[in-house]
Amino acid sequence: MHPLWKFYMPNSKLTVPLLFVGLLSVQGLEAQATASGSKPDVLVLSDGEKLIGHLQSATGSSVVFKSDIVGDVTVDWSKIQELQSSQTFAAIPKGVKLRHDEDRSKVPQGTVAMQDQKLQLSPSNGAQPQTVPVNNVANLVQEPAFQKAFERQSFTQGWTGGATLGISLTEATQKSQTITSGVNLVRPVPDVNWLDLRSRTLFDYNQAYGKVTEPGTPTVKTSLYHIGLEEDWYLSSRLFAFGQALLDHNFSQGLDLQQTYGGGLGFVVFKTDSQELDFKASADYIDQRFTLSSLNKHLFGSVFSESYNRKFAHGILLAQQAGITPAWNDTSAYSAFASAALTFPVYHHFGLTVGALDNFLNDPPPLFKKNSFQFTLGATYLFQ
Questions:
Q1: What is the 3-state secondary structure (H, E, C) of the chain?
Q2: Which pLDDT score, from 0 to 100, does residue 38 have?
Q3: pLDDT reported for residue 152
Q4: What's the pLDDT score for residue 4?
Q5: Rounded to an integer, what distance in angstroms lies between the CA atom of residue 319 and that of residue 321?
Q6: Cα(302)–Cα(286) distance, rounded to whole angstroms?
Q7: How far apart are the first and last CA of the chain?
Q8: Rounded-to-integer distance, Cα 227 and Cα 206, Å
Q9: Using an 8 Å Cβ cutoff, are 309 and 275 in contact?
Q10: Sign, Cα dihedral of 121, 151, 38, 42
Q11: 57 burial class (0-12, 13-18, 19+ CB within 10 angstroms)?
C-alpha cells in the first residue's frame, strides 16, 4: 500500500480505490503543471514515497517542501533519496561570510537536483553545474530572495515590532484617568536570518500618564516617558559599535528632562532563531534638568546594559532589558532601569502585552521619590 494513503485511511476497505485515485491525482498534478509551462518540484523519500509540489527552503539538517496534497512538510536530508526543482536557489555553504555585495559570487546558484546526499545547482546561463554535499550547506534560499537581501532598502522598509495602548477610566467618588502607551521598533539590515547583520536601528517610546482627583483633596498626577534611539554597526557577527540618544522625564522623581548622548561597543553573547542576548557598554554625556533648577547637573558617565529577546511557542514574545548608569564626575548621581514585556498574539496582527518598567534615580530633589514603577496591560498591534 502507498504510505500516503495508508496514513489517511488505515484498515479501510477502500484502500485500493483510494490508491488508484491518489495515483491519478499525482499524475493530474504533473499534467497540469506541464500544460501551464512550469514543471513541479519532486521530492522522493528514502522509502520511495514521492511528493509533488514546491521546494521552499532548506538548512543544513532539513528541507521544507510544500506538497500539493499534504501541505508543508519538513524532512531531514538523511531521509531524502532524490530532489528535483526547476526553481532557482542559492546554496549558502557553511562558514561563508556574506556581508558585502561582491560576496554573492561565493554562493552556488541555479536549479536544484539532489542525489546520493549531493546537491547540484545548474546556473541558468549555461555555466558548469556546481556540486555541494548537503552536509556542507548552511541554507538553501530561493534565488530572488537571495538577490533581494543585498539590495539597499529605504529607511521606511524593514521595520518590525509593535505599538501598545492601555486606558483606564474611573468616574466615582474619585475621578481617575490612566493612559499607558509604547512603541518598540527594530530595523535589521539585512532583514533575513541567514545573512550576518550589517546594521540595526532600534527605537522605543514608553509613556504613562495618570491623574486622580477628589473633592477637597489635592490632585495626584503621574507623568513619565522614555524615548530611545540607537544605531548599531556590526564589526563582526558578534561585535558591534553603536550610538545612542535617550530622553527621560519622570514627574515623581522631580526630573523634568534627562538627556543622554553617547556610544560604545556591544557584544552578542548568543543568538539563535528563537532568542538573543546582548551586552553593551558606552561612554555618555548626561544633562539632568530638575524641577528645582539649582540641582541641574552635567554629567559624564557610562551605560552598562543587557537586553534579551525570546520567541516562545505559539508566537509569544519576551523582551527584557536592564542597565545601570554611573556618573564618573559625581558618583552619587547614578541611575538604573529594568523592563520586561510579554506579548501574546490574539488575532492576526493584534495581541495582548503585559509589561513592567522600573526606574531608579539616586539623587532626586528633596521630597521626591528615588524609585518609580510602571505596569502596562494593553492591546498591541504587531508590525511584521
A1: CCHHHHHHCCCCCCHHHHHHHHHHHHHHHHHHHHHCCCCCEEEEECCCCEEEEEEEEEECCEEEEEECCCEEEEEEHHHEEEEEEEEEEEEEECCCCCCCHHHHHHCCEEEEEEECCEEEEECCCCCCCEEEEHHHEEEEEEHHHHHHCCCCCCCCCCCEEEEEEEEEEEECCCEEEEEEEEEEEEEEECCCCCCCCCEEEEEEEEEEEEEEECCCCCCEEEEEEEEEEEEEEECCCCEEEEEEEEEEEEHHHCEEEEEEEEEEEEEEEEECCCEEEEEEEEEEEEEEEECCHHHCEEEEEEEEEEEEEEECHHHCEEEEEEEEECECCCCCCCEEEEEEEEEEEEECCEEEEEEEEEEEECCCCCCCCCEEEEEEEEEEEEEC
A2: 63
A3: 82
A4: 41
A5: 7
A6: 9
A7: 44
A8: 7
A9: yes
A10: positive
A11: middle
* Encoded amino acid at 165, one letter: L
Bridge partner list, 172: none
- The mean pLDDT values, 10 residues at a time, for the chain of 384 residues are 40 39 45 55 92 91 90 92 93 81 83 92 86 90 88 85 88 82 92 85 92 80 91 94 96 93 96 92 96 93 96 92 95 94 93 93 91 89 84
Integer Cα distance of 50 and 367 in angstroms: 76
CA 68 to chain centre: 30
CB-CB contact of 331 with 363 (8 Å): no
Instruction: Compute, in degrees rounded to 10, the torsion defined by CA atoms 273, 303, 353, 271.
Output: 10
| Cell matching residue 276 | 538573543
The predicted structure's pLDDT at residue 158: 87
- 100/104 Cα distance (integer angstroms): 8
Q: Are 121 and 136 in contact (CB under 8 A)?
A: no
Q: Domain locations in the chain?
A: 39-148, 160-383
| Those residues with Cβ within 8 angstroms of residue 139's Cβ, 6 or more apart along the chain or in another chain | 57, 58, 59, 60, 91, 92, 194
Report how far residue 32's alpha carbon sits from residue 44's, in angstroms, rounded to the nearest whole number. Answer: 20
Domain 160-383 CATH assignment equals 1.10.10.10: no
